[in-house]
Amino acid sequence: MTAAQTQIALPTRLLSLDFFRGLTMFLLIAESTETLILLGEAAPEGTFLYAIGQQFHHHPWAGLRFWDLIQPFFMFIVGVALPFSIANRQKKGESDQSIRSHVFKRALLLLLLGWGLYCVGNDHIVFKFQNVLAQLSVTYLLAYLIMHKSTRFQIVFSFILIVLTEFIYRTFWVEGFNHPFTPNENFGTWLDLQYGGADLGGHWVSFNAIPTTAHTIWGVLAGQLLMSNKSNHEKLKILVIAGLIGVVLGYALSPVTPIIKRICTSSFILASGGWTILALALSYWLIDIKKYHRGILFFTIVGMNPLFIYLFAHLGGSGFIENFVKPFANSLLGWLGEQSLHIIISMIVLFILWYLCYWLYKRKIFFRI
What we know:
This protein is an all-alpha fold. It contains 14 helices and two strands. The chain has a two-stranded antiparallel sheet. Helix 1 (15-33) packs across helix 13 (306-333).
């Protein structure tokens, strides 16, 4: 990993993508501080606020909550940014071979970083590949390898991955793992058990990287659309239609194939992909078409260092800051009560994480791989 000192000129960028990436990263670091979860739990059970708070938890199995969209957001955003990144490198005179070499190296580093996150705190190597970085290494590489094909080819390829996943889960024959939509009794869990990387408590599976590649491919298609010569309103129309198709197909399929994020069922890929495209469409309409820019920098600067802040927050950075803040908060605000104090501490930690991104942004320090 190197620190690249580059000049950022926000007006020349696709601001909606910067905002979308920044918002997603802000939510990811908010997860590490438990701020959103604590706010939801503070409300009495059965109230509207409590119901909203539940949206910041992953669904335990079959169903879809807002928090289940964060990883699809991340996968999709990487895809959207890919055509812009390749075009910038080509403008700088890089050869196709050089770009291809960079992509393969980046995919490998993402895999090693994702794998390494599971090794931290253990006294032995842990073979688990269920986190965002490890799975992104697969989706990023596959999306790149076909991004120069036709739009039709990319769409068909993405659906082949979805259909293939559905077929494997439904036809897998090993006794005890031939129940496609039952926790820990499906093909995904069986596969992870073969190399000792099963997550039996959370039911997440490594094979998710294959179907969720569709999210990154659809992101590439969205990026290519936004780079095209079509009018802004035509681009917006295509995004909205594509998003609605995904949402409708996903929920329509759910009675047959449940929407399950933890094993990335076909209905989940479609529904979450549709919501993700609609989220980009909303950002594009609000920021790039309507030119509403007030407050977007707050989130954008978090997205300028996505890999750094993700690793920092998930490698103990949040806990370190909390341990530093807690004694002062306890001394000054202990009279508020344990629950309120916990919420305030988590909000302070979240602000400090944000300020760290701001500090790096002001000094034009951006970590890249």
